[in-house]
Amino acid sequence: MRIDIAAVGRLRGGAESDLVSDYLDRFARTGRPLGLPAVNIIEVEDKRGGGMAAEADLLARAIPASSALIVMDERGQQPTSPEFATRIAGYRDQARDICLVIGGADGLDPSIRARADWQISFGRMVWPHMLVRVMLAEQLYRAATILAGSPYHRV
Ligand SMILES: C[S@@+](CC[C@H](N)C(=O)[O-])C[C@H]1O[C@@H](n2cnc3c(N)ncnc32)[C@H](O)[C@@H]1O
């Protein structure tokens, strides 16, 4: 199994970058005994001002063809953390690769959203894409702790 986060924009250090690294390190440590691989981050950036269409083109080339496509979008489903964990475990059990996609400031092109196997929302409010990266890294770590039966997720 392979887990990628494909994101528009580059995190060049700073608070969000530190948090993403910390949660993904924790995910790697907790997930390893569960058969979950470390998360690979793929960043794409369009420097020519081509907007969502150009970003969609870059994302389409970066997303591994065989991966289940999980798109982060405020219009998506709102799973609980245990439901998210169960779904991640299901992909692992099917030996299915997954790619979680986060859009840029303008959002994700409809062509990417249309291809998604699952669209996940962190609520109907719009969050900055760098914070969504932090929140997604935390939810992956939380999912690993739920699957491991550790007390981090207390509800
Ligand atoms: C600043 S938002 C873009 C908002 C844009 N107006 C739109 O219509 O998508 C950047 C990215 O962060 C993610 N995002 C923002 N808010 C989100 C939420 N509530 N749930 C899930 N993902 C979110 C999405 O991947 C989005 O493409």
From TrEMBL:
InterPro entries: Alpha/beta_knot_MTases (IPR029028), RlmH-like (IPR003742), tRNA_m1G_MTases_N (IPR029026). GO terms for molecular function: rRNA (pseudouridine-N3-)-methyltransferase activity. The lineage of its organism: Bacteria, Pseudomonadati, Pseudomonadota, Alphaproteobacteria, Rhodobacterales. Its main location: cytoplasm. Homodimer. S-adenosyl-L-methionine binds at G103, F122, G123, R124, M125, V126, W127. This is Ribosomal RNA large subunit methyltransferase H. It comes from the Bacteria. It is found in: Cytoplasm. Its EC number is 2.1.1.177. Belongs to the RNA methyltransferase RlmH family.
